[in-house]
Amino acid sequence: MPKISEEQRAERIDRILAGARRCFAQYGYEGATVARLEEEIGLSRGAIFNWFPSKEELFVELARRDNHRLLSLFADEGFEALVRAVTEEDADWLAVYLEFGRRLRADPDFRQQWQERAAPGVRERVHSLLQAGQAEGSVRDDLTVDQLGRFLGLVVDGIVVQRGMGFDPPDADAVVVLAEDAIAPRGARRRRAQRKASSAA
Description:
Elements: H1 6-31, H2 34-41, H3 45-49, H4 55-77, H5 79-88, H6 91-106, H7 108-117, H8 120-136, H9 145-164, H10 172-183, H11 186-200
C-alpha cells in the first residue's frame, strides 16, 4: 500500500466513518452488512477493513466520536448547546445508538473496549465547568458534581431514548429551562419564579 500523508489518512478514515454512520442509520447495526457498508462508503471491504478490523470496531469508533463531540459541546458551549444538538440529531442514528447502550450492559468485552477508548479528559472538563458554577454560586452545591452530571446525563439520555423510539423531538427551550432550574441554587430558582410572576402581571 503506498504511503499516504496524515491528512490523507484522516480524510480516508472520516470518509469511512461518515459512510458507516449513514449505513448503520439506514439499516441498523445487524442490517449494515459488509456489502452495504462497501456500497455506502464507496470503498472495497479491503480498503475499509484495512483501517478498522471489524464492523464492531467501526461502530465503537463512531460511538466514541459522538460521545466526545457531545461532551466537548457541553464543556465548550454549555448544556443548552448539548440539548439542541441531541434534539436535532438524526433519529435513525439514535435508534442504532441505543443498541450501543444495550451492548455495553450485556457484553463485558464490549464494555472493556469502550472504556479503553473513552475520553476522560472531556469528562473532567465538564466536571470543572460544574465546579466553577458551584464556586460562583450559579449551580447548587448541596449535591456533588458527579450527582449533577449524572442528572444532566439522564436528561440527555431520555431525549436520545425517546427520539430513537420514534417520538418527536422535545421542546429544547423547555428542557433547558427545567434542567437549569433543577441545578440552580434554591435562591436563584425563587428569584427566577418571582421575575416570571411579575412580568406576567
